[in-house]
Amino acid sequence: MGFSKLRHLQQNIDALRIVFTLEKENRRATVGERLLMMQYSGFGGLKFILNPVENEIDVNNWRKTEHDLFPITQELHQLLKENSGDDKQYRRYVDSMKSSVLTAFYTPPQVIDAISATLRESGLNIQKFLEPSAGIGSFIESFSENQKASVTAYEKDLLTGKILKQLYPEAGIRVSGFEEIPEREQNSYDVIASNIPFGDTSVFDLSYSRSKDTVKVQDARSIHNYFFLEGADTLREGGILAYIISQGILNSPKNEPIRGALMKDNNLVAAIRLPNNLFTEYAGTEVGSDLIVLQRNTAKQGLTEREDLFCQSSPTEYNTPGNALFRDSTRIVHTGSRLDTDPYGQPALIYTHRDGASGIAKDLRQMLSDDFGKHLNLGLYRGERNAEPLLQIPVEPKVIPPVIESLSIGRERQPLSAPVINGNSPQENN
Hints:
Order of helices and strands: HHHHHEHEHEEHHHEHHEHEHEEHHH
Structural class: alpha/beta
CATH topology of the largest domain: Rossmann fold
Radius of gyration: 22 Å
Largest sheet: 7 strands, mixed
Distance between the termini: 19 Å
Helix content: 25-40%
């Protein structure tokens, strides 16, 4: 099913109407109400909700293709006004939505389940879990399944935070930005997992912006870089970080110092590039993203060859942005690729998976299982420092250029180099 702006907004309105009712009646949600609230998907990809709706003639200022969305947008704003104590509160709700329309893209649950299930199968027992950008809690739901974990979650959007509190009343839900996490909680979490915000907005954290560490100063200028370094600092020794991130973190040469800082105190467990249609079904957008899994290890003596490659930005043969770790495309979940442009109009290699979220989750789980078997140090996670294997420090890692066929602009074709999984190509597995 394709992304429907009308359907997603109607589900959001229904969920918000329930949460306002629950607050007024001072009670918890019924099973049916909880299921309806779980259909909430945030406002990523719904930028039209910020258009003027005060009068019927305001529709003339809308795009003609979105005129059918005018009545339901009026319904949304009327609901917010009716449940605001004053105009100031209403404006706070609107400003909160404004901050989320470009950054809140929810991850398909099947993909999150692939990550959490593979971790559990590897033998991890999670006692203390952190979600720094929780949305409606899909990572909380997946990572705390069958585990009695203590959960802490941050959600900055006011409306989304209301729903999150109703869905997970036993969790420590904090409706605020991740930058407000107390310093005492550093080095304390077993696992931190999230789809962190995309975008280049800065973060107000004086401990970073006024730091003598130039990497931290740079880090505070970009929200996704900030979430990475601050997230790693919340892990206790041996703890695991699993983030879905914008491809810019690994592709951009400007972020090489950030990646170097991450590799200094963390082992690289997995780095997998995800197809551009990952968010198509849930947010109606095609954006490039990666899954990065790190393990805290402040005693490491150097970098492995793959960690050294992780730090290197390396343009593709077509001079599109890339990372040295993905040069041969075996670390990319995909069934097809094409040379095209990204959402900003810049040339980019676009990877897709013909089987959507379910197919992405299946191939991702196989890749992760292999990575965890090779690179996850269970002894270190359990506090057994002497079980840690020695790391090899590369002299000069060799990057072998891939043999890539010529590509046509905008034309779908077979993978540049199909990853082999358990002896089969993705085509044979699907």
